[in-house]
Amino acid sequence: MRGRKSLPRLKTALRHLREFFGGARAMSITHDRLTEYVVHRQTEGASNSSIQKELAAIRRAFRLAKRAKKVSDVPDVPTLELNNTRTGFIEARDAIFDRYDIVEEDELREAVRRLAEHRGDTERKTVPLSRRGTEGAQSG
């Protein structure tokens, strides 16, 4: 491992995978079995994001095993739709205008400048959406 922050998440993913697949041989882990795993994890209440990370771990394991010539095929690993990602940027002007009752252009410029400083971005004229505000939001 490269000492990345994701190591604890990988260990959690592997624990869930081991609980479901146990001592199954690699060739018995098919697309259908992986789909059963997805349904099992969803009934346990796991988020699609967590399940997707677990599937990414097994996909990576299979690819490494194939590279080492331990398996001949890599199963088609299902992917899940994730709806908790950022959807883009909004103009800082729109964000301020909606939040505050600002009518004067000078007041608006000052509020945008303060918001950009707060976000640590004084060069760009856009403000990234916060994940907190989009968590679990449906894209549309």
Chart the SSEs and their pairings.
Layout: H1 7-21, H2 31-43, H3 48-67, E1 89-91, H4 92-99, H5 105-119, E2 126-128, H6 131-134
Antiparallel strand pairs: 1-2
Describe it.
The radius of gyration is 22 Å and the shape is elongated. The protein has helices at residues 7-21, 31-43, 48-67, 92-99, 105-119, 131-134, and strands at 89-91, 126-128. The longest helix is centred in the middle third of the chain and has 20 residues, at 48-67. Mean pLDDT is 76; it is low at 132-140. The protein contains six helices and two strands. It has a two-stranded antiparallel sheet. It has two domains: 7-67, no CATH class; 89-128, no CATH class.
Q: What number of structural domains do the residues give?
A: 2
Largest sheet: 2 strands, antiparallel
Helix fraction by DSSP (H/I, runs of at least 4): 40-55%
Order of strands, main sheet, comes to: 1-2
Strand content: under 5%
Secondary structure class reads mainly alpha
User: Would you count the extended β strands for me?
Assistant: 2
Give the termini distance in whole angstroms: 38 Å
List the main descriptive attributes of the protein structure presented here.
140 residues, mainly alpha, two-stranded antiparallel ribbon, 2 strands, 54% helix
Q: What's this, in brief?
A:
The chain is mainly alpha-helical and 140 residues long. Helix content is 54%, strand content 4%.
